[in-house]
Amino acid sequence: MSSAAEQEAVEAVSNAVGAVRSGQAAPVPHVDGGPGGPLGHQSDGRPDGRTNGQVKGQVLRAHVRPAPAVWPGSSHPLGARFHHGPDGTAGTNFAVWAQGAESVEVCLFDEAGAETACVLTELTHEIWHGFVPGVRPGQRYGFRVHGRWDPWTGVRHNPAKLLLDPYARAVDGDFTLPPEVYGHVRDWPQQYIADTVRDDRDSGPFVPKGVVVHDDDDWADDVRPKTPWADSVIYELHVRGFTMRHPGVPEELRGTYAGLAHPAAVEHLVKLGVTAVELLPVHQFAHEDHLLRRGLRNYWGYNSVGYFAPHAGYSSSGTAGQQVGEFKRMVRALHAAGIEVILDVVYNHTAEAGELGPTLSLRGFDNRGYYRLQSDQRRYADYTGCGNTLHAGRPHVLRLITDSLRYWVTEMGVDGFRFDLAAALARSMHDVDMLSPFLAVIAQDPVLRRVKLIAEPWDVGSGGYQVGAFPPLWTEWNDRYRDAVRDFWRGALPDVRDLGYRLSGSSDLYAWGGRRPYASVNFVTAHDGFTLRDLVSYERKHNDANGEAGRDGTNDNRSWNCGAEGETDDVRVGVLRRRQLRNLLTTLLLSTGVPMLVAGDEFGRTQGGNNNAYCQDNETGWVDWSLLEDPAWRSLFALTARLISLRHTHPVLRRRAFFSGRPQGADGLRDLAWFTPAGVEMTERDWYAPAAALGMYLSGRDIPGRDERGRQVTDDSFLVLLHTGDRPAAWVLPGAPWAEQYELVLDTSLEEQAVVPGTVHRAGETVTVPARSVLLLRVSGSRPPAASA
User: Fold this and answer.
1) Maximum Cα–Cα distance across the chain
2) Strands 475-478 and 520-523
3) Using an 8 Å Cβ cutoff, are 346 and 340 in contact?
4) How far apart are alpha carbons 614 and 402 in whole angstroms?
5) For residue 626, is pLDDT > 80?
6) How many angstroms separate the Cα of 477 from the Cα of each of 422, 453, 483, 509?
7) Helices 571-590 and 631-649 sit at what angle, rounded to 10 degrees?
């Protein structure tokens, strides 16, 4: 900082102090000096000679009532736990980790907002704790932490800021982010030092409160589906967006956990045939300041602040703890329908953002302990693009994450997790490390190693792209599958080598360390990016409604608009787009691996070309159920359901082991073979040559593995013909030993699949494959299987 700037800042502070003393302004915030010259006037006597330079003002607090007696209580478990004390007295034990704090208060709030502050005098292994008699479920509370304010060394304690319990099981209220909730003066004139200027205004009246919840549910009446990975079909949905416009869900339940549990919502999932829902974040989250200033909200929820609390905004029954029971009833309803619940979880960063973000929870307890900081400890290491990164290599942070995960499994009934930006969690000091503490702890945990674990295998830091690198317990979002399939159907693949790997389970990525084909979660679309319909309707993003001048959202969409940008009345374009949708869905659901669909893609949901609808809590982001009234979109749903049913019926489409490509008998028949339109097996030269067509033969004769009775698993064999050319192609059907004849099962050139007559073709016959289409044929006459699983 220049000497002139330093002097300007000192004068500003001096003027503010003078205004306070003359009664013209609120108490002055603390100001800290940095290296190279103090902004204040008091030395803290540190060996490095730097000065803390705090100009102190009075900490303002709302009315505080006299505190009741606080008993020592216990340091375990963390959080607020209602129980009866040793003499039978009912009350709540409070315990919170706050390394470096000088004192900690738990603050209780009544319905009128009056505060009762109770000092926790017991300290065990950096955990402050105490038992408060008479505190019962439904009590709202928060913490205040006293300690040093020295942002230059990463210390940001501020007792004026009411902090949310990191272990709060329910949260009452919403984060609106007025200036009072910032630990520093958010609107300080010199923004380059704003984060060092402490704001002493009380945030208590402006922030949500934790709620004491009593949980004695043993889940004895619940039956988990426990669907094997290979048999899974995942359906990514947003609790609010999925139900907000559903005509069968009562209006008062729309947008809520109860709405998703409603029979009308569950019925759609059952008809479709999916085995698991992957819910966009349901941990309590906050809305970013820049969105609130534009009149928008964080719709997706990737901005967590409470890792134990179901997001209160999705509760129809209340936010004083009722959201916990409502979430559990939703899980039970889905389990009863045979559907697992997977949570999309965001442990890589929190809603407190960077040094200019609000002080809501972890920052106020121990900023240096919870977050990764740069060598300049005033700044945050950001591997997430969201301002901060949790330090998952530290024991207490690992405890927070694993305690949260176990809680959602054992007490909330969920079946698995998809980890947002999982590579950030797998970093040790700086680099991504597959032997990192986080991955090691998960691997040995007796609860977590048994549930479904899905990694988004990248972050935004150096070396963060880790597709194919996670250890055997994990499955991964496979974006290389997404890109190859998109490129093939828009005619942009230089050859079909990559497509072959993706269709057959991505063995080039996952055939190591005992991993299986289901390590690959195959997807063409996800919440982030175009919907499937927009993928074939737009070649560029249309994100104006986000208010970021088009800077947000990827420009690498790998989409093709079929001849017109956006919605059009051109009948030919509409017919082609629907065919492309059928091609994409058919490719996805016939590929080896675990398919993931996005809610509404099965009947043509559109976001109007917005490929980053994270802030669109409106019709843009919500599923439009009226589309099912259109026969064209209803037929797309029927095709999707039929394809999923085919997967469930035929084990050859959901293999538990990789294809070998080797002959399975004396006749030379292999478990996987690739064909050109000439009806001959592909050579190495064919893989490297430009091609618009690929034939894939899947043998069901000798599928590795046995059924539950120890019998060999066998199935029908299939021939899949994919043709992305703009003209029909003549295709010779392979002869012996592959087949004697083929029965047509599916033709994506047809709007209504019900009209497929089950046509039979002889081996060696030439068939016409329509332009831009997929044919699925069942093999017959080639040594039929002895049994079927």
Assistant:
1) 99
2) parallel
3) no
4) 27
5) yes
6) 11, 11, 12, 12
7) 10
* Both tokens assigned to 602: 């099965």
- Letter string b/e over residues 129-163, b meaning 16 or more CB atoms within 10 A of that residue's CB: bbbbeebebbbbbbbbbebebbbbbbbbbbbbbbb
pTM: 0.92
Contact yes or no for 60/200 (Cβ under 8 A): yes
Backbone angles phi, psi at 501, to 5 degrees: -60, -45
Distances in Å between the Cα of 776 and the Cα atoms of 501, 643, 746 are 19, 11, 5
CA dihedral (294, 300, 305, 310) in degrees, to 10, reads 130
Q: Are 132 and 70 in contact (CB under 8 A)?
A: yes
Beta strands 766-769; 729-732: pairing state: antiparallel
Find out whether 644 and 590 touch, Cβ atoms under 8 Å.
Answer: no
Cα gap 488→374, rounded to integer Å: 43
The catalytic site residues sit at: 420, 456
- Enter the tokens of residue 270: 């059952």
Instruction: Please identify which residue in the block is written with the tokens 């828009």.
Output: 490
Residue 83 tokens, joined: 């129980």
Q: pLDDT tens digits, residue range 187-246?
A: 999 999 999 999 999 999 999 999 999 987 888 889 999 999 999 999 999 999 999 999
What end-to-end distance do the CA atoms of the chain give, in Å? 72
Q: Which of 650, 668, 672 is nearest to 660 (CA)?
A: 672
pLDDT tens sequence across 577-619 = 999 999 999 999 999 999 999 999 999 999 999 999 999 999 9
Phi-psi region of 507 (alpha: psi -120 to 50; beta: other; left: phi over 0): alpha
Helix (H, G, I), strand (E, B) or coil at 735: coil
C-beta of residue 172 within 8 angstroms of C-beta of residue 320:
yes
Question: What is the residue type of 66?
Answer: P
Closest of 490, 493, 481, 570 to residue 536, by C-alpha:
490
